[in-house]
Amino acid sequence: MERLLPILPRLIRHRDAPAYLGMNRNKFNAEVRPYLTEIPLSKQAVAFDRLELDAWADDYIQRNGRPGRSLGDQLWDAKQHRGSRSARASGTSTNASAGGEFAKALKRVNSKKPNGFSRG
Q1: What's the confidence (pLDDT) of residue 74?
Q2: Bridge partner list, 49
Q3: Rounded to whole angstroms, how far apart are CA atoms 48 and 39?
Q4: DSSP states of the chain as a string?
Q5: Average pLDDT taken over every residue of the chain
Q6: CA-to-CA distance for 91 and 10, rounded, in angstroms?
């Protein structure tokens, strides 16, 4: 027995177009509809060309899509941690100054002896 495949219509009515793209009507009207050709079917019914909807979706995916994640791989946009030993960075090491000038200044502030400055 021969099995018939469903045929997608070329023209998709406005009521069905948002679902075709997987979005709600408000988002469709704001972000997609302005870029499509409207095809009047009757006084009230409007349709859109399925190929234009597909082209819009292809463009959207090209601009906003992200590659999939494979098991064991890092995310493509993951940032390296600051403390990473494999990453080189510029700056001042806090370990080198721990016993230096900062420690001396901290000792002076915490000492109970007056340091010779007048308080007046």
Answers
A1: 58
A2: 11
A3: 6
A4: ---PPP---SEEETTTHHHHHTS-HHHIIIIIGGGS-EEE-SSS-EEEEHHHHHHHHHHHHHHH------TTPPPTTPPPPTT-SSS---S--HHHHTTTHHHHHHHHHH-SS--S----
A5: 80
A6: 60
Q: Which two tokens stand for residue 101?
A: 């000038």
Tokens of 83: 């403390």
**Residue 52 and residue 48: Cα distance in Å, rounded?**
7
Name every residue whose Cβ is closer than 8 Å to that of residue 120 and which is 6 or more positions away in sequence: none
Tell me how far apart the alpha carbons of residues 52 and 110 are, in angstroms, rounded to a whole number: 73
pLDDT at 89 exceeding the cut of 70: no
CA distance linking residue 21 with residue 50, whole number of Å: 10
Name every residue whose Cβ is closer than 8 Å to that of residue 27 and which is 6 or more positions away in sequence: 18
Confidence band for 101, pLDDT divided at 50, 70 and 90: confident
